[in-house]
Amino acid sequence: MGLVDLGPLVSLTGLSADILGPGLALLSSYFLALPFAMLSSAAAKDAFSVAMSGLIFMALFNVHGLVQLLALSSACYFVSIRFRNSSRMPVFVLILSMAVLGMNHLNAQFFQDELSPRFDQTVPMMVAVQKMATFAWSIHDGTKSDTKLSKTQKSLKISTVPSILQYLGFIFFYPSFILGPSFHFNTYNDFVNTSGQFRLAAGATMLPGRWLYFSKTLAIGLVCVAIHTFASPILTYDFGLTDAFLGYSFIERCAYLLASALVQQCQFFSAWKLAEGACILCGFGYNGADEKNAGAFKWDRCENVRIWEIELAENPRMFLSAWNVQTALWLRSAVYLRLAPEPLPDQTLEEAREAKANASFATHATFLVSAFWHGFYPGFYLTFITLSFLVSANRISRKWIRPLFHDPASKLHSFLSVYHVVGWAATCIGMNYATVGMQMKRFNSAMILWGRIYFSVHVALVVLIVLDAVLGTLGRSKKAGPGKASEKTTKVD
């Protein structure tokens, strides 16, 4: 337990520790924006973030956890600097940081009370692990020539070795330390030095448009808090495990679980939007001029969720690209694109084909890393395995079904709007179905709940994958033709 006992506040407000803990952390971040803005030097800002984030961590969790996080961060820093020329170094840093995070996940899973808050010290450590991994890759990319790097990697590479204080300021940056989002070192370094995109115009004292976007983001976060607070006692996954749930029809069960999923989403929406608000308030959320609207500015640098894109997504990729955005970007840059790299100017055709062939493996490996990063509850792995097959199923549908509606010459082209509506409904059902494992955590609980809706989405996925295999085999046989088949037989004879 931390230096601050949340028990009295829980009793007084009726809110759970899972809401109060991050709520107090975010509230403190809002108040720290003013003194942070008064600091003139980058070193002072680095030290301020380390000190304030350390105090917040000790208040909510414990001193031992803070020492552990400082030790891990420092170890990853020295390994990254000392072995920056080695291509294996970033992989080692990722494994080391994930191993320490994994031990903390196991401690929370097996040695803490089942009723203890889910919001514990693993949450800020998860954010820190992302930063350690991206720092390691960026410092390694800084040793390569530009011809060996993609456009994104060139913009993120670290050519000059930063000091340990700069690095820790990046890891412990106070508005995003507890709940994220993560970001790259170069972005943070530009911010504390008021350089790059954060450079103020002549005579300006602050970046333009801050208060409008801050107010909007804060309002959305508070609305999501209210929805979750009032609806979560009524719509809960646990009810799906009761005998009363069996009295519902199949359609009613699906509708109830879908509504419960939407309520649970609001918990994440509120946390991410309030954290984004803290980043906007201190100025870090600024993302330059809006190219689409003259005279407008973007404050979406720390946007971690795009709510409307999630609710209106027509396929799993659209959903995932708008959910936990910065984590998705981290997984893409630190895992997926390292296994299936983007095309490079001097890349051979064979290397390009190999990267394309690795796409499927990279997708499944990325989901596995994501599951490991989240923890070791069996339900997490059930969710991410299901998600990986949903993405694969989306590829199959785009290959066989999409052309039937998108081709102007097709007879079904006039039903294109129906195709989009069906895609939206299937995505909404499939994605929320998959999250049952994440929410229930326990293997038995997830299987029982899925079983009560007859594993319907899993069955549909299996049917789709089998059909793809059958159609693919028939297509290859048809393409080969009887003449070619007999020719091959003759050659063998």
UniProtKB/TrEMBL annotation:
It is a multi-pass membrane protein. GO terms for cellular component: endoplasmic reticulum; membrane. It is found in: Membrane. Pfam families: MBOAT. Keywords: Acyltransferase, Membrane, Transferase, Transmembrane, Transmembrane helix. GO terms for molecular function: 1-acylglycerol-3-phosphate O-acyltransferase activity; 1-acylglycerophosphocholine O-acyltransferase activity. GO terms for biological process: glycerophospholipid biosynthetic process; lipid modification. The chain crosses the membrane at residues 24-43, 55-79, 91-111, 164-185, 371-391, 412-433, 453-474. InterPro entries: LPLAT_7/PORCN-like, MBOAT_fam. This is Uncharacterized protein. The lineage of its organism: Eukaryota, Fungi, Fungi incertae sedis, Chytridiomycota, Chytridiomycota incertae sedis.
